[in-house]
Amino acid sequence: MIETFDLTPSHVGLGDLNEFALLTLVANTHYRILTQGTDATPREIFDKSGEALYPSVFALHLRAPIARPIEAHALWEKLSVGADVRCFGRSFLDVRGVIGRAGEVPETPETWARAPLPSVSWAGAWTLKGEVAMPAPTFVENVPRAAAPPELLSLFRAVQSRGIIAEAEGPSAPSAPVLYPVEAGRDVARGRQMMFSQFVVVMDHAERVFLTERVWPAFPCELVECRTTLERRIFYFGNCRADDVIETVVEARLEKIASPSGEDLPFVPSAVVTLTMALTDKRSRRLVALCETRKLLAIPRTQAGLIREAARMFARHGEHTPMKEQK
Q1: Which of 101, 132, 162 is the last residue of a domain?
Q2: Is pLDDT at 170 greater than 90 in this prediction?
Q3: How many angstroms from the chain centroid is the CA of residue 90?
Q4: Do 118 and 214 lie in a common domain?
Q5: Which residues on adjacent β-strands are paired with residue 52?
Q6: What element of type H or E holds 8?
Q7: Are residues 218 and 153 in the same domain?
Q8: Which residues are 86's β-sheet partners?
Q9: From CA 160, how far away is CA 157, in angstroms rounded?
Q10: How far apart are CA 77 and CA 279, in angstroms?
């Protein structure tokens, strides 16, 4: 399914497209696919006993090309949002999504991952009280079937068994936890759990605090505002409700990056910040999520001072070396 509409303040306030909005827009289209032909809303998908189910996300992978950052899609621009949903059995969901300007999204979902556009995929399942459940047949009969389990589901199970996304190369320097109190109204509806896309907001908060307050030398705030996501992988093991507090442990490294050949970019791709995060519920001590993110420092060509600041950060923190908190 491909939907086209204007990007408005109801999606992004007065800014341009961001990662949270991208995920939410793809989720909106995927909900329409799940309820197509049922006359039901996403809150009215039931199992055979009449219990309401929820489509939970287990693992997510987002990618954006250097030449088409997420923020390149401006407020009031006409967007095309594509989503493709497949069911494996009646419980598991394999979701793919892509965003582009009007007319840019290919009709064939199998080509979306190769298109030079921001894209996302996730593996999930229908759940009831946190456990995998099975909707009544009428609710999934219009959803195309997958021949095999979602690839991300296998990766999720491997990460879950290891407790880490990947073994670190070289020394490790995890931060002290960055705290995030979950507030009703801002982060979550009272009585419900956080939507999967809201975790990006929590992670970006921890990332900003770590870079501008924890490490030494600290990153200038203006430089941190130049970040744009190239890639993010999230593995969800739990969720949070209002009044919970999330503890996020951050580890970050810098790496060099070359400008893509043949591209006339309006910014200087000065470096990539690679971050790994572990999110834990402070009260229960249970692991909520693991995340690995690559953010590009994309500095406007007119900001010569910030380009020099990026070079200073690279010189002080080094390449592939864990950034250390100030004592």
Answers
A1: 162
A2: no
A3: 25
A4: no
A5: 46
A6: none
A7: no
A8: 94
A9: 5
A10: 34
Mean pLDDT of the chain: 91
pLDDT of residue 327: 67
3-class DSSP string for 124-165: EEEEECCEECCECHHHCCCCCECCCCCHHHHHHHHHHHHCCC
Phi-psi bin for 223: left (phi > 0), alpha (psi -120 to 50), beta?
alpha
Residue 29, SS3 per DSSP: helix
Number of domains the chain is built from: 2
Cα 88-93-96 angle, rounded to 5 deg: 120
pLDDT tens-digit map of 45-92: 888 888 888 889 999 999 999 999 999 999 999 999 999 999 898 889
Are 104 and 205 contained in the same domain?
A: no
Q: Are residues 227 and 305 in the same domain?
A: yes
- Among 53, 73, 64, smallest CA distance to 8 is for 73
CATH label of the domain that carries residue 221: 3.10.129.10
Closest CA to 92 of 125, 59, 57: 125
125/178 same-domain check:
no
pLDDT confidence of 273, banded at 50, 70, 90?
very high
* Confidence at residue 319, expressed as pLDDT on a 0 to 100 scale: 84
